[in-house]
Design brief:
8-stranded mixed sheet, 329 residues, alpha/beta, 9 helices, two-stranded parallel sheet
Length: 329
């Protein structure tokens, strides 16, 4: 799980920045410093009362999770060289939507996880990942219910098919117009707790992100409303449900639009592939100079200064074998 935060630090000398950053990192993320793998880059620098003020974009993830993911890739013959937060990849797509200025909320929904981010003036200022994805809707539909006087419990395949066919029905949808093993009001009631949980997480991330943005002293105009998002960009294969966008617009009272994956549209549509599911991949291709988290090594090293050279390949011993040459992820 990757997280992104914005941090403002004042240090007497430029060479003190790395040590000052190490002291603050444990306060920014939901895991202990000993389990944290992090990297940061400098967004802005200015003099402040005889000192130096830096605005940083800090990316971090749980070291143990990163180690497990790296080992899984190595088992299938891929050698990861860098880890890249999904939020930063999605943030690199803002220019394609004319969202370089102002504040926008990014929501990427996968099968088991969602990435929620707040971007201000073209840079991700706050992000978090939650263990809530589209599969939660499928699982909700598998709950045993009584239809008529008969108990009914859908299989995973039946629930998944029904979810993909009905999506999130509009409030004015006629119950009798839908062919379903579940009555439409019951279907909507079974989905409602999961949908409400998404709304709760969106509002929570907005509140945390705006508060963190204010506390970072990163509002040059002094207007706290600058961080209030005015639009939501939606991506991820799990978000491609019928009626999900208008439902979000109605609940959040803000415009919702899908992330554009540029020229990949023409390549993916004929194949019948999910466009939203490739948003993070396309963002990686478009990104330039953002933070990259080096895969884990036996010891946890603190990052160098923000303007240091990008992290290199994963150090440490490599196993030799007679297996075919590994590809790089």
């Amino acid at each position: 799980q990757g997280h992104v935060r914005r941090l403002t630090l004042e240090v007497p000398r430029a060479q003190d920045l790395s040590a000052a950053g190490r002291e603050r990192v444990p306060q920014l993320f939901p895991f202990e410093a000993a389990r944290c793998r992090y990297e940061y880059r400098r967004l802005a620098q200015q003099p402040a009362h005889g000192a130096h003020r830096y605005t940083l974009q800090v990316s971090a993830c749980d070291l143990e999770r990163l180690r497990r993911d790296t080992e899984l890739f190595e088992r299938i013959g891929w050698v990861p060289t860098h880890a890249y937060p999904a939020a930063l990849a999605l943030g690199s797509l803002l220019g394609a939507h004319g969202q370089g200025a102002g504040s926008v909320f990014l929501l990427d929904i996968g099968s088991a996880r969602s990435v929620l981010s707040l971007a201000v003036n073209g840079e991700v200022a706050f992000s978090r990942e939650i263990s809530l994805g589209a599969s939660a809707l499928t699982e909700a539909l598998m709950t045993q219910v009584v239809v008529g006087e008969q108990p009914l419990q859908l299989s995973w395949e039946q629930a998944e098919s029904l979810k993909n066919r009905l999506g999130v029905p509009a409030p004015e949808a006629a119950p009798d117009a839908v062919e379903s093993p579940l009555p439409l009001p019951m279907y909507c009631a079974m989905l409602q707790p999961v949908l409400e949980q998404w709304l709760e997480e969106i509002h929570r991330t907005m509140a945390f992100g705006i508060q963190a943005f204010r506390e970072s002293d990163a509002v040059p105009s002094g207007d706290p409303g600058e961080a209030m998002p005015t639009r939501l960009l939606l991506s991820g294969g799990g978000s491609e449900l019928v009626g999900f966008e208008p439902w979000l617009e109605q609940q959040l009272k803000m415009p919702v639009e899908r992330v554009t994956v540029g020229p990949l549209h023409e390549a993916l549509r004929p194949q019948g592939l999910s466009l939203g599911a490739f948003a993070v991949c396309y963002g990686l291709l478009m990104s330039r100079g953002a933070a990259r988290l080096t895969p884990p090594t036996p010891a946890v090293h603190s990052p160098g200064p923000p303007d240091a050279a990008p992290a290199g390949k994963c150090p440490g011993p490599r196993r030799r074998s007679s297996a075919p040459r590994r590809r790089r992820a």
